[in-house]
Structures are given as structure tokens and as C-alpha cells.
Amino acid sequence: AIGRMLQCYGDLALNLGPGANSNLSTNATPSAADGSMALLTQAMALIAWASETFDGEVRQARKRLPPDPSVLAAEICRRAADPALTLGDIASTFGITERRVQQVLALQGGTFRRLVREERLTRAARALAGPTGQSVLEIALSAGFSDLSHFSRCFKDRYGCSPSAYRISHRDN
Q1: For site-directed labelling of 132, which of 53, 60, 98, 113 has its Cα 20 to 30 A away?
Q2: Nearest alpha-carbon partner for 33 in 4, 18, 11, 48
Q3: What is the pLDDT of residues 26-39, one digit of tens each?
Q4: How far is the C-alpha of 114 from the C-alpha of 48, rounded, in Å?
């Protein structure tokens, strides 16, 4: 866009455009006008190249910028109930590599798996403590776990008791 604008301006300044009336082209000798035109053309080409190169570099730099860690974590938490959620899914959502997702999460001391597991456990604990008619298996599945024994082990590691015991102790409150 800048290169095209400069080209139009140069054409007008050198009396090459329709109806233009420039003192430069009227008063200059043919060789001086040709030299001025050549210089102007080279300058415009250089400016056009620089603007396109700079725009391309800015676009590439934006692609390399990591997403805000809190935005990345929020997206992972939002989608954690999907048992098929993968690191690749999150990476493609943000247009970055899987490795870049890992690096961004590591800045906050976390990992993809840990964040997904914690979110799923939090959802399950909320459901177990609430007035729901769902079984422990149904709650585990709705939180994103695909295996009841894995859910029970993770839950006990995190909360210090089985999901059933947690439900009983929190229903009394």
C-alpha cells in the first residue's frame, strides 16, 4: 500500500500522471528527468520492499508470541471435561506448537496433564458435595475421566479420601 502510494506520488511529481504539472519535469533536462525518475523508482522499490518485509516479520513475530498463561489455562479448564482433550487440541486452538503450550504452562510451574487433572478433580468434588442424584461413576465421566479406578486413585491422592467418603462427609454439611 505504501509502495503504491509512493508510486502515484512520484508519477504526479514527475509529470507522468494525467493532468499533472510539475516544475521538476518542465524545467529539467531530459537526462536529469530520467535520472530523477530512476532514483525515485529505486527509492520507491526499496520502501515497498521494506514495508512488505517489515509487515511479514511482524506477522511472524505475532505467531511466535505465546498466549497469556492465564488465557491458555482458562481454555484448558473450559475444555477439561472432554475426555479426548489433547495437548495438540489446545496448541491448534492458539496456533502454536505443543512444545510452546508446555513452555507457557511451565512458566507458572504447571503441566498440561496436571492442569487437566486438577480441573477434572475440582469439578468432580463440586458435584460430589452438591445435591445430585448421580453415581460416582457418572460424576467421574461427566468431569472428563474415562476410568473409574483411575479417577478414584487421583481423587484419593488429591483429597485424602475416596469419592464416596468425600460425598458422605460433605453431604452432612
Answers
A1: 113
A2: 11
A3: 555 556 666 666 77
A4: 49
